[in-house]
Design a protein that fits this description.
By secondary structure, the chain is α+β, with helices and mostly antiparallel strands. It has three helices and five strands; from the N terminus they run E-E-H-E-E-H-E-H. The protein has helices at 54-75, 98-106, 124-146; strands spanning 13-19, 45-52, 87-90, 93-96, 110-115. A hairpin with a 2-residue loop joins strand 3 and strand 4 (93-96). Residues 150-155 have low confidence and may be disordered.
């Protein structure tokens, strides 16, 4: 996602490598084009498909701002709670984690999908479509487990 800046258009898909650890040079940020993930060529990475949504960005901004405000309240002693997001503790003293806030701002509006299916077998749009279809299967299992009257099975004689 570093290849073309951080301005995204609604519905934009980004297909890239995501290192399994921070100790890899498979995803070289000096390259202009995103590398195409291949399990044989990139054994230390996964394929990640990112989708940008303007609607998600609005929601993410609201959530991130609330998390940041809560972190500030904890640091200032106005609230006591478990350590919220964006608070780091150094020497027993809480402080605002500016690096985490900056990273969260970069990811606003993006949702990632990790897969082990190469791009030549399943394009980015199909990866996301498959994940979206999972809710139908999951909903069916929830309904069958709860004995919901809305679960219908057609049995032919």
């Amino acid at each position: 996602m570093t290849r073309h800046g951080d301005a995204f258009s609604d519905g934009q898909l980004i297909d890239t490598l995501t290192p399994r650890t921070g100790h890899t040079n498979e995803n070289n940020p000096d390259l202009r084009a995103e590398p195409v993930w291949d399990p044989a060529v990139h054994p230390g990475s996964w394929r990640a498909v990112w989708a940008y949504s303007r609607k998600r960005a609005v929601h993410d901004n609201t959530t991130r701002t609330a998390q940041e405000n809560r972190a500030r309240e904890v640091i200032e002693g106005q609230k006591s709670a478990r350590t919220p997001r964006f608070v780091k503790t150094a020497g027993g003293k809480p402080s605002l984690d500016e690096a985490s806030i900056a990273r969260a701002r970069q990811l606003v509006g993006l949702k990632g999908y990790v897969t082990n299916i190469p791009a030549n077998i399943m394009p980015a749009g199909e990866v996301i479509g498959s994940y979206h279809d999972l809710w139908h299967v999951e909903q069916s299992f929830r309904m069958s487990k709860t004995g919901s009257p809305w679960f219908v099975v057609n049995v032919l004689p």
